[in-house]
Batch of 2 targets.
Target 1
Amino acid sequence: MQRIEIDGVPVFTAPGPERVTAALTFGVGVRDETYGILGVTHLVEHLVMGSLPKSHLECNAMVDTEMTVFHATGRPQAVVAFLAGICAALADLPVHRIEQEIGVLEAENCPGAHPTAAALWAARFRLTGPGIALAGGGVPVGLTGEVVREHARRWFVRSNAALMWHGEVSADLRLPLPDGPRPQRPAPVRRIERGPVWMGGPALGVGLLISAGDQLDAAVGAGIDALVQRVRDVARHERGLSYHADMEIADVAPGEREVAVLVDARDGEEASVARLLWEQYLDLAGDGPSATELQHVVDGYAEDMDKGDETVLGELSKAAYCHLFDLPYRSGADGLAVWRELTPQQVAEALRRTVATAVLLVPEGVNPGALGGGIQRRYLCNLVPYLPKTGTTFRPPLLARALNRGARMRLVVGDDFLAHADADGDGHVIGWDEVEAAVPAMTGEGVFVIGRNLCGIDVHEDVFGRKAVDLVRARLPRSAWVPAAPSRESGRSAAPEASVAAPADR
Ligand SMILES: [Zn+2]
């Protein structure tokens, strides 16, 4: 692998087939958005791709939590032209096509991050950093051309780009990207938790999040691979069930890797899958993998290093990624050499260090039962046992409360906060200074208030009366208002957390 530079953009390249593959990567993804501009990165990507002339080139683009990638495979000249088109479109974004592309995004209905991973990032970081993915994946609403251009100007610049090119580099390859300072990502705020903890949330299946720390820590990497393998094997062999188990990684900063292990669960099996995942994790953290298990994951790594072009592409992408996020780079071959030296004891010790950071997530309403390892129950949002007393209290009309248990709720509007208690007495409190977004109701007068602490409070005239709505509106910071979505389905659910929990709602 070679590193060269073209027009100020680092290019990671290696000899390869005549049909070259190139990927232009930008260090911007959903985690760089805020609630008010959710989906803007995906919109930029669509505006750019939509501006390219029709061709038969094999090409595509994607946006995930961390980055945006434009890639193509074909004759070198065609790939050079593809990259030139990307750069030209980014330099002068065709914002006149925003409405059209929003229509396409609506039809695409892209879920963004895996919902369980998104909920786990949010459990760790609330709505900051990768946690915003919990609300993301949606279609941007009410964005002006200027807002979209501003986003592109800040993030899609040469100092935030890297190219990987597999094949002989064409002499006429140019990357005339807009100039701009290398964007600084604010560090996401880690929720302090004396773990391990478990909680319910908008999960599809079951998830386990651990802070793996150092990106190059082989022992913890092998331990997580062994865990994924265990869950698959135990489910398949001992229970006759086949579960899909996988992992998703968020590299929040150098030395701050978060790994989410995601396991499918059939309806009704969530609690037992959660127990299986947790027990196997604790077991590996206690005794480590067997020598055979460890050998198996090392063999898996070796196999990944022996896939020809696919391996080279993976290495080039990794180099580009590490460059963009200032992460330490180590070649696959060097990594494998380190993995080969690992002992089961080292793996066990590495996993043991992560136990205090573990978050086990189950779907809302699922109780995993008794779990070992001193795990405690927590809540995704800032649930409180009782509401603050100082403030104006609103309740649904007396008749509604008499007839419907679910209507026995309460809203308190204080000088510093908005609070809501549901029929079960669970309270949610959002300080005015921690409001992330205020979304107008689709029908009637109302507002859904979303806190950075992941509480969501629905204030609607049909439930609490017009006075409550007016009072809340007057308190909300101007900057929090998000335009109403014209296409959203009618009627917002009265359940708190609904909007944050269901990305499709937006
Ligand atoms: Zn809450």
Note: Residues 307 and 314 are 10 Å apart (CA to CA).
Target 2
Amino acid sequence: MSAYTAQPLIDGFPGKSSSHGGFGWSSLWLLMSASRRVLIDTGPPQYIPLIHDRLQQLGLTTSSITDVLVTHLHWDHVQNFTMYAGARVWVGDRELEWGRRQPAGTAFVPDLHIQDLVRRGDAVGRIRGEDEVLPGIGAIHSPGHTPGHLAFQVATSAGVLIFAGDAVKNIHELTKGAADSTMDQDLSHRTIVRLRGILRETDGILVPGHDVGLRFDGPRIERVKPQTAHIGYFADGECGARDRSIA
Ligand SMILES: [Zn+2]
């Protein structure tokens, strides 16, 4: 089993506006081994310039990415897959079959991107069951938020990482065992309980879809580092957006 080094390219943030919906600030992580550079999810379109900057800081480009693993087919997790021309995209078979049946205008589902995944045929890896997707990376069926949602369990040089996607969006969902946005609350509850059990058994770190990594500290679940984010907006007649902390 190959061990990966893992790092966030961009940390997720659990933000939602009461007037303008979710920010879509999802978690975007990079795994590296001797032979592979793997992205877990793709982030939303507003991350594109940030992704180029972060990859450049690591001496990489978008063509360095060998594989893109997608937890589910919501726009803020899948939409940037087209920017990695040399990468193999991996998506759950059940999720893709669900996504392709959704009519245009379905909330959070980017219909044109899903049509393109289907059109690519065998070039897109379809994950069935809970098989090992790549050496050291296993899939975990984690339905509720969407019907074919997948989490990924990864052996890294720093221990086990569990990429929960939106099966667990933030620290509050993991703590309470309930989800804010889900197609099936009961299924989501069972999925969160299962992932929490895997986190406990492995003494690892769980990366939610919209938060920094989480771990058990005794009986409590804690963030591995503070949540920091800023939002800028134009105010007081200024011509530049003023950056304000929302952490
Ligand atoms: Zn989602």
Note: Residues 79 and 157 are 29 Å apart (CA to CA).
